Amino acid sequence: MSQCQHQTIHQKDYKVPDYLVDTVELTFDLSPEDTRVLSRLAIRSNHDRSNGASPLVLDGEELTLVSLKLDGVEVKRDAYRVDDASLTLLAPPESFVLEVETRIKPKENSALSGLYASGPMLCTQCEAEGFRRITYFTDRPDVMAVYTVTLRADKASCPVLLANGNLVDRGDLPDGRHFAVWHDPFKKPSYLFAVVAGDLVHIADRFTTMSGRAVQLEIYVEERNKDKCEHALRSLMRAMRWDEEKFGREYDLDTYMVVAVDDFNMGAMENKGLNVFNSRYVLASPESATDDDYEAIEEVIGHEYFHNWTGNRITCRDWFQLSLKEGLTIFRDQEFSADMQSRPVKRIADVKSLRSAQFAEDAGPLAHPVRPESYVEINNFYSMTVYHKGGEVIRMLQTLLGREAFRAGMDLYFERHDGQAVRVDEFVQAMADAGKRDLSQFMLWYDQAGTPVLTVSDDYRPESGSYTLTVTQSCPSTPGQPEKKPFHIPLAMGLLDRDGNELPLQLAGEAAAAGTSRVLELRGETETFTFAGIKERPVPSLLRNFSAPVKLQYPYSDEDLNLLMTRDSDPFVRWEAGQVQAVKLIMGLTGEIQAGRQAQVPESFIESFRRLLADDSQDRAFLAETLTLPAESYLAEQMAVIDPDAIHQARELVRSTVGRRLWSELTAVRAACAPKAPYRPDDGLAGCRRLKNLCLAYLMAAGGQEAIDACMAQYRSADNMTDSLGALAQLTSCACPERDEALASFYDCWRGDRGVIDKWFTHQALSRLPDTMDRVLALLEHPDFDLRNPNRVRSLVGAFSQGNQVRFHDAGGRGYRFLADQILRLNAINPQIAARMLTPFSRWRRYDAHRQELMKKELERILAEPGLARDVYELAAKSL
Ligand code: B3K
Ligand code: ZN
């Protein structure tokens, strides 16, 4: 297909469907080589037919049409057309039953969209547009139907047959085959359809909902993984209870099934009653999963469960509204995790990932609004912006309305729109009505791309005791949006006196102070807020809890930052004050290094680390966050022209100086955090382990055999993956014989466990050693490397190009050539994964002329490839 045939779809062109489908009856004769699909659709017209019938266009890709009947009669060849993307009935009647028989080849489906084979099973992925790879259909989310599905397969190789809804019949068939019939009483869009068939086992439990209904919960896996599902099952039960308690939402079917699949394009999929999961978000055991893995499983299990109300019961009218379900559900899963773990630490982690990945997206050629205006391939818009900035937009609504009104808005949204496919506008309207607020300006968060910058200045008048904050907002141009209107921004803040006391906040004109923390609302380009009764010049504590996804500029002195860091009541501000200092320091050192001058870490910085390490009153996980230096990717964002080598050297200089100068303090904290009992993932000591491993990282940065010995000792004695990986991760960046020894023993111990071997690939790809590129090239040839498995691709190609800034951006350009080569190979196998790998190239303009030239050349090479998939074409073309 020539590339100019890749069409752009625009939001403004939305039209209601000409035909609706009320019921779908599907019969599958399953086999990996050749599956037959019979579809029986009850269709009715949804348009004005006074000028005749509109054609009915059904989407379909990679299908072989076998037969087509309308109301039981074979459709004549001149009454329909078929091409490689659709089947068109030229003039169908007002209402009718259409029967379509097609054949598909699951085993040849390496794109992992539609029906495909993964290990011993067949499974589906339909979001966004995979259903059309199973059968002909109006494959758009505003066509919602009731589905009945019959599955037939060989009983010995395929004992388990699952689909959405409730099992209504099952039995044996001749020739060793069997069948199962599933009925889903809830109307749903085709993207929520799912089928799984294979040789699986399951673990189960029962959940009693708040109204007393019993729900059967089942987690399906391959036999060898049966003892790794407990945590997922418990997480599911916690999520179900949490949604009842926090949002009053109850589960609605009799069964809830989760299936773990090894080959999966993303994290998981919320299909009604039958979630399909990437096995990395289901399987966990203490020996093989880290604390982070446990947390991630709980979060993703929660996320997919919460979709049942925010996504499934109320779905999107069209794909431009994707954030209606994704932003909202991200917000819900973040709140769930915050309630299950430490709220401040969770918030910090979310802000970190938003700022390094979403802010970068917003600042580059692929910037798009939370609700995009157009797309070529919708799968490219399952982005940090739609998901995570979308989540922040929901959080801002909660901040503006207050928790109570926000909850009332959620209730109103469910009440008004249950069973419908709606737009973001309907959601925001429910919030506006419940909160009695005008949110029309707030809608700009959905339609304007780019990260706003808040520039704050202040003025203190001792004679009148008044303190004025002046806040100016601006937003850089983004593709297609040169000018921006001001946003409606909640700015949470407080004021501290020089002793760190929080001051009562009384705005001029107000009768009394309203607490010591409040939300200022910014609407105009410049806003001023004057506080009365302030006895000395205060230090402003701004953007508490990161109340808006913006960049904040205020000329804090080191003294101000120290005060905020030690005294502010808001944990996010305390953490951020430390980060701002660290950014300042590392950027300063970067400049020195670039200028060829001797760079040195100031004593004051070492002293503040020393104080932090001595303070055992703090939560360990929070302390670990405070002691973690900003990531190289975040530091890069702060530079006009990114210099990956100088950033890396500067950051390493700080790390090694801290390691050397605070050796005994780090050793002591590490010892204090040493395990006192055998590991349990829920022992409440994950924060301790994180801090301990961070200390080890600093010791290793200092260098020397003693640190290596400590690492090896921890590696050998660890009874859990967090600690063994904590040691291995450090050894992989150390040019010592112990490195190869540990890597070899780790491989020998874990060969055969896909999830752990992924980690083995990842940590080698993340190594800071100069020979990493060669090692990565060698790993490409490793018998366990497989370009058809998305997790493996992410673990090697993704980790190296997106997580190893200094080695990937090597000025020789080998990293770039390597990535382009892999993208071109992936293009032919799995376009969605190929497109995901393009991200680093989209940032090429941020580098020096030499690197720009090299990256551009690779992008051009990719674009010149004949047969480039839509996914890859769109991102490569927009990046250039
Ligand atoms: N809704 C799915 C994502 C589907 C991605 C399609 N390319 C998982 C989730 O967000 O819950
Ligand atoms: Zn989601």
UniProtKB/TrEMBL annotation:
Source species of the chain: Geomonas paludis
Record keyword ATP-binding present: no
Catalytic activity annotation: Release of an N-terminal amino acid, Xaa-|-Yaa- from a peptide, amide or arylamide. Xaa is preferably Ala, but may be most amino acids including Pro (slow action). When a terminal hydrophobic residue is followed by a prolyl residue, the two may be released as an intact Xaa-Pro dipeptide
GO process terms (BP): proteolysis
The encoding gene: pepN
Cofactor(s) in the UniProt record: Zn(2+)
Occurrences of domain Aminopeptidase N-like N-terminal (ranges): 26-192
Top EC class of this enzyme: hydrolase
Gene3D superfamilies according to UniProt: 2.60.40.1840, 3.30.2010.30, Neutral Protease Domain 2, Peptidase M1, alanyl aminopeptidase, C-terminal domain, tricorn interacting facor f3 domain
Pfam family, one: Peptidase_M1
Classification via CDD domains: M1_APN
Descriptive protein name: Aminopeptidase N
